[in-house]
Amino acid sequence: MAKLDKTLRAVETISPRHVEQKVDALLRGIYLDRSHLDYPDRLLAHRFHMYAQNEEDGLVLALIQEAGRPVGRFVDIGCGHNGGNSAFLARELLFAGVMIDGDPDLTILCETVLGRSDVSVVTAFITQENINDLIVGGGVQGEIDFLSIDIDGNDLWIWRAIDVVQPRIVCVEYNSLYGAEAAVTIPYDPEFARRSPTIPPVVKPHYYGASLRAFVNVGRRDGYRLVSVEPRGTNAFFVREDVASHVPEISVERGFTMLTKNRKRMLAGIDIMEAARRAGLTLEAVL
């Protein structure tokens, strides 16, 4: 209960950064003619924050609009306390779907916030072996508008494993510490936890997830193209090849952004891949 109370207090705190983002979004909406912008800047001009970590709410909405008539369903893996990147779809557009997270304190809050019978909130530690059953068990299958994956671990492996839904738009969180050039991911371990005591302190909690180029390689193999990256350098957005053909693919070089805190770490001489190697950890190439 103490942990849940602490989480609730954190949720109720209004971040000055989020207030600034909301003001910036309003100013863009008033003064910026988006029709004169090329992609991906036209998408980025729509960004705003309501529920997601940064300004993904506006990007998700913009892509839903670009994709045409929605089917009204989503899957959010790593939904956190309020629905994560799918919260705007669920709370404002009334999309149905399933939200999954391994932390019961967060899913309790999420279920309380949503309070809808057509949005299933599932508590489960997510693996390749159980993800499809979790999605189907949550009442979703087939064509969906949006899939979001943010679990700070086996993210790439989970995307590769999903076959019970066919998302039109996919959002994944990449680890910018791996840089723009490397196509790497942590090896699959169904018990991986970012803050596990088995991970040496020198690389904890920076050893997790996959690089942007690794996600692009997986996306291309499965028929998805990279179309945008959230400007802070956290989430990348992909669109299925048969959807919104007028929205062009962008290169990794064009899209890649490094989180400010990660840039500071690199300037301080932190090389996560070299540190992982020295600690006896591996990174797997994704071709």
List keywords for this structure.
globular; 35% helix; 17% strand; single chain; Rossmann fold; 9 strands; seven-stranded mixed β-sheet; two-stranded antiparallel sheet; 287 residues
What does this structure look like?
- With 287 residues, this protein is α/β, with parallel strands linked by helices.
- The chain has a single domain, classed as Rossmann fold (3-Layer(aba) Sandwich), CATH 3.40.50.
- The protein has twelve helices and nine strands.
- It has helices spanning 2-12, 16-31, 41-44, 56-66, 87-91, 104-114, 131-137, 155-161, 212-221, 252-255, 260-267, 272-278, and strands spanning 73-77, 96-101, 119-123, 142-149, 165-173, 184-185, 224-229, 235-240, 284-285.
- A seven-stranded mixed β-sheet has the order 3-2-1-4-5-8-7, with helices on both faces. The chain has a two-stranded antiparallel sheet with strand order 6-9.
- Helix 6 links the parallel strand 2 and strand 3 (119-123).
- The longest helix has 16 residues, at 16-31.
- It is globular.
Along the chain, the helix and strand elements come as HHHHEHEHEHEHEEHEEHHHE
Cross-sheet strand order for the largest sheet: 3-2-1-4-5-8-7
The CATH fourth-level homologous superfamily: Vaccinia Virus protein VP39
Radius of gyration: 18 Å
Instruction: State the helical fraction.
Output: 25-40%
Number of domains: 1
